[in-house]
Specification:
The complex is a heterodimer of chains A (257) and B (598).
Chain A lengths: L16 E12 L2 E12 L3 E5 L6 H8 L7 E6 L2 E2 L4 H10 E4 L11 H11 L5 H14 L15 H13 L5 E5 L7 H16 L3 E5 L3 H7 L2 E6 L2 E7 H6 L4 H10 L1
Parallel strand pairs in A: 3-8, 3-9, 6-7, 7-8
Antiparallel strand pairs in A: 1-2, 1-4, 4-5, 9-10
Helix pairs in contact in A: 3-4, 3-5, 4-5, 5-6
Chain B lengths: L10 H13 L3 H25 L7 H5 L1 H6 L8 H20 L6 E2 H21 L6 H27 L4 E2 L1 H18 L4 E5 L2 E5 L6 H22 L3 H27 L6 H26 L5 H24 L6 H20 L3 H25 L15 H27 L4 H15 L3 H15 L8 H26 L3 H10 L3 H31 L11 H8 L11 H30 L4
Antiparallel strand pairs in B: 1-2, 3-4
Helix pairs in contact in B: 5-9, 5-10, 6-7, 8-9, 10-14, 11-13, 11-14, 12-13, 15-16, 15-18, 15-20, 15-21, 16-18, 17-18, 18-20, 19-20, 20-22, 21-22
The structure holds adenosine-5'-triphosphate and magnesium ion.
């Protein structure tokens, strides 16, 4: 399968594909969570995934770095197909950053150690160098003064920004976000979205699951609408919000906007 | 018990208020207080009556102190015991200093402790039976008075400056000075055995052969504590690693080299032992250095598998007697194979590779030296066979059983929670089997039966058999305690580690174990305490530990015939003090690890 196949379901200009999903199916026991998903994400593209609760959004992006294992279909990340080969998986994971809804920082490590862990142990960088990069990243997400603290001493918004810095420290080619602001108090959402906006501006390839419609409209190159394990509609931001093709999309948008 | 004391009220008033609010706040409370006080008085009176009854001869303990500490260790070589004890205490002090041990001791809390001890001492003095030695009663009154005055002074100071704290160093220094003063000037009496005949000089201070070594040791302890505290950040890191290495092999070195004084056959040492050690240290180090390069991880895996196959073959061959090989070659081979196998997880920059190689080299040199020393005959001339006995035996066994069962137990716990059914089954079988058999049975099995199963030429000493059996038993319990902790690590932690691309090995080592073990600390310390106390089972299989000496050796001496009670009460106190210290330090450790974290 060619990984440079252009998107056939949108009017996007063809870019190099970073993520390619073809006919991805996933079952949890008898329950089918993904029912044949096709999706392409080009280089430097920002794709936002929308959909009602339980529609399989998290399952899809967790399949992309193999936190979940799909049973049928093909997923390619940066031209490499996801198989059961362990080293293959570790390599892909180190190139795909993931930010979780509940942050999942390591509570026994300081903020700085959380960020340098991956570069030192996976990228085999020297500690001094890793710490320098970590400080730059903390600067970028706006909390350099928290470096020595432990995650339990930070606010939710600060924790999520550390989580983003931790993912970025691996110099990933792709960033996945699974509802990064859903566990945050309203006043902290903005600070996290600012960081993500900045990332998008710098040309990071991103797949974002979010319920923040305003933010989605602003940063997304394309929007994907999922329902009960299927992709119902994919479109550019403008087309998606102003002229959705599918009935189910219209209904979803009318409920949420 | 928490008391909220208003800083502006004088301490007397606040004490009065505390007593009123906590002890006499209601009729029921008042009755409870009096009932409890009566119970304390009755129990204490009974205990002291038992301990200092007319027929109890406490000189049995005082005279046999050396027996209790080190059993039959020859008096002419006793300096070795002092050196071993000194090195242990000095390293303990260095560790406290290097890890900046400085708990916040508020003067207010110290005052409270002084008062409580003063009250207990006075109570004991009051309730002493008339048969108790006069010097003890007088000492108790003295202690009570001094502490009451100290408590009064401390609370007077605290009432002016509420949150005043005392540094641990100051406390340590003053305690040591106080202890030495007591040792030199309080007439506890001088008891002992010289040339087989016991002597007793009740009016004297402790023997000079006891006072002088303690004085030297304590002086060194203070010096090391302050010196290691003053170290800068760069040096302290090195000192810390050195101390960690000491706590791993130091006690074994003290036991087998300092106490046992091996009579090396130097010709053989230079011809065989040194080249072997050097070969493994430098050859292995070079191999490790070369293979730890991140780009060579596939090669490292390949070499690791080949080495493991060879190492396992050596053990099998040894067991069936196919070809001979020095035991330490087998051990080193296996260790090198394991290191190379896990090497890709630790691969990194050049300085990191160098560190790993140097660590391996140092480790192998120490290990080879120890194995050689253990297998070399001792120069000691001892009247009865075991060279370890009394407290030294209790300490050696419990220390190394805890140390050895820890990694084994953690591995078992990891296997039991792993995704691989084979690992799970094997670990479950091990745990269930060893938890299902009483410790005493295992100890008998290992000392009596194990030699029968071993092939010819593979003999083990009783000490080694006890150590192996006890560690294997203890690991089964430890595994269950650790498993509880591992299960408390949340799924999100695994996912975050995976998402970073950590390998399973790295994830376990860096994320899961640190979090899981922290949760297990209370249980692990509980198990450590149990291990310490259950070393007394060694008595049943022929070892001369504290219990055996108190229960049968002393009561069989002609001059102390049937004197069991003082010895048993004494060792009960020793066990209690050790267990209580462990329990307290675990609570402190927990608090420290919890501070500021989730
Ligand atoms: N580990 C699992 N075992 C069984 N079923 C699961 C598992 N994970 C997810 N599911 C099911 O798969 C479906 C899709 O779940 P998923 O978490 O992908 O939904 P989602 O779109 O992310 O929803 P939300 O917006 O609530 O996060 C749901 O019906 C869920 O119950
Ligand atoms: Mg979800």
């Amino acid at each position: 399968m060619s990984s440079t196949k252009p998107n056939d379901n949108t009017g996007q200009s063809p870019r190099r594909n970073m993520i390619t999903c073809r006919g991805v199916k996933k079952w949890f026991g008898d329950f089918q969570a993904l029912k044949g998903v096709d999706l392409d994400v080009g280089e430097q593209e920002v794709v936002v995934v929308l959909g009602p609760s339980g529609s399989g959004k998290s399952t899809l992006i967790r399949c992309i770095n193999r936190l979940e294992v799909h049973q049928e279909g093909i997923i390619e990340v940066d031209g490499v197909e996801l198989t059961n080969d362990l080293r293959n998986i570790e390599k892909i994971r180190s190139e795909v950053g993931m930010v979780f809804q509940l942050f999942n920082l390591f509570p026994h490590l300081s903020v700085l150690d959380n960020i340098t862990l991956g570069p030192i142990w996976v990228r085999k960088k020297a500690r001094v160098e890793a710490e320098k990069t970590a400080m730059e990243l903390l600067e970028r997400v706006g909390i350099p003064e928290q470096a020595a603290k432990f995650p339990g001493q930070l606010s939710g918004g600060q924790q999520q920004r550390v989580a983003i810095a931790r993912a970025l420290a691996m110099e990933p080619k792709i960033m996945l976000f699974d509802e990064p602001t859903s566990a945050l108090d309203p006043e902290m959402i903005a600070e996290v979205l600012d960081v993500m906006r900045d990332l998008a501006r710098r040309g990071m390839t991103m797949v974002i699951v979010t319920h923040e419609m305003g933010f989605a409209r602003e940063v997304a190159d394309r929007l994907v609408f999922m329902e009960s394990g299927e992709i119902v509609e994919v479109g550019t931001t403008e087309q998606f919000f102003s002229a959705p093709r599918e009935e189910r999309t219209k209904k979803f948008l009318s409920q949420i906007l | 018990m928490t008391t909220v004391i208003n800083a502006n009220v004088s301490s007397q008033k606040s004490w009065f208020k505390w007593v009123r609010d906590n002890l006499f706040s209601s009729v029921a409370g008042t009755i409870q207080t009096f009932a409890f006080a009566a119970l304390v008085v009755v129990v204490l009176r009974w205990l002291l009556g038992v301990a200092f009854a007319e027929k109890n001869d406490w000189t049995a303990v005082a005279t046999n102190m050396r027996l209790l500490v080190s059993y039959n260790y020859p008096l002419s070589q006793f300096i070795r015991i002092w050196v071993a004890a000194g090195v242990l205490l000095v390293c303990a002090a260095a560790s406290l200093g290097a890890w900046r041990f400085d708990p916040a001791l508020t003067v207010k809390r110290m005052a409270r402790t002084f008062y409580s001890v003063a009250v207990v001492a006075a109570l004991c003095a009051l309730l002493m039976p008339s048969s108790a030695p006069g010097v003890l009663v007088r000492t108790l009154w003295l202690v009570s008075t001094v502490l009451a005055i100290a408590g009064f002074a401390a609370s007077a100071v605290a009432s002016k400056r509420n949150n005043l704290t005392v540094s641990f160093g100051a406390l340590l220094t003053s305690s040591v000075v106080g202890l030495l003063a007591i040792l030199w000037f309080v007439p506890f009496g001088n008891y002992g055995v010289v040339g087989g005949s016991p002597f007793a000089n009740p009016g004297d201070t402790v023997a000079r052969s006891t006072k002088e070594p303690w004085t030297v040791i304590f002086t060194l302890v203070l010096f090391t504590f302050w010196a290691s505290r003053a170290l800068g950040t760069k040096t302290v890191a090195i000192v810390r690693s050195a101390l960690l290495a000491f706590w791993l092999v130091g006690p074994a070195f003290l036991i087998f080299v300092v106490l046992r004084d091996p009579a090396f056959d130097w010709q053989r040492v230079w011809a065989v032992d040194v080249p072997l050690a050097a070969g493994f240290a430098f050859g292995g180090g070079l191999l490790v250095y070369l293979l730890a390069k991140p780009t060579r991880s596939s090669l490292a895996r390949l070499v690791g598998v080949a080495l493991s196959a060879f190492a396992i073959l050596n053990w099998v061959a040894g067991f069936f007697g196919w070809y001979g090989m020095l035991q330490k070659v087998r051990i080193s081979m296996l260790l090198l194979a394991i290191l190379v196998l896990i090497l890709p997880a630790f691969a990194g920059s050049q300085s990191k590779r160098l560190r790993i190689a140097v660590a391996w080299g140092g480790f192998i040199l120490v290990l080879h030296w120890l194995i050689t020393a253990i297998n070399t005959p001792s120069t000691l001339v001892i009247s009865a066979p075991p060279f370890l006995g009394g407290f030294t035996l209790t300490f050696a066994i419990s220390y190394y059983v805890v140390l050895a069962s820890f990694p084994l137990g953690v591995l078992l716990a990891l296997a039991r929670t792993s995704d691989l059914p084979l690992f799970r089954m094997m670990s479950t079988a091990y745990i269930e089997v060893f938890r299902g058999v009483p410790l005493i049975t295992i100890l008998f099995l290992f000392t009596v039966m194990l030699p029968l199963f071993l092939p010819r030429g593979m003999a083990v000493s009783d000490l080694a058999a006890v150590f192996a059996g006890y560690s294997i038993f203890s690991a089964a319990y430890l595994a269950e305690n650790v498993r509880g902790g591992l299960q408390s690590v949340r799924q999100g932690q695994y996912e975050a580690a995976n998402a970073l691309g950590l390998t399973v090995f790295q994830r376990t080592l860096l994320i899961v174990l640190p979090q899981g073990l922290r949760v297990s600390i209370p249980n692990l310390v509980g198990q450590g305490i149990a291990t310490l106390k259950e070393t007394s089972l060694i008595a049943i299989i022929g070892g001369f530990d504290l219990l055996r000496i108190a229960n049968s050796t002393i009561p069989n001496q002609p001059q102390f015939l049937g004197q069991k009670r003082p010895g048993l009460l004494f060792i009960a106190m020793v066990y209690f003090i050790l267990a209580y210290t462990m329990s307290k330090s675990s609570q402190r450790l927990e608090r420290r690890l919890d501070a500021g974290r989730m």
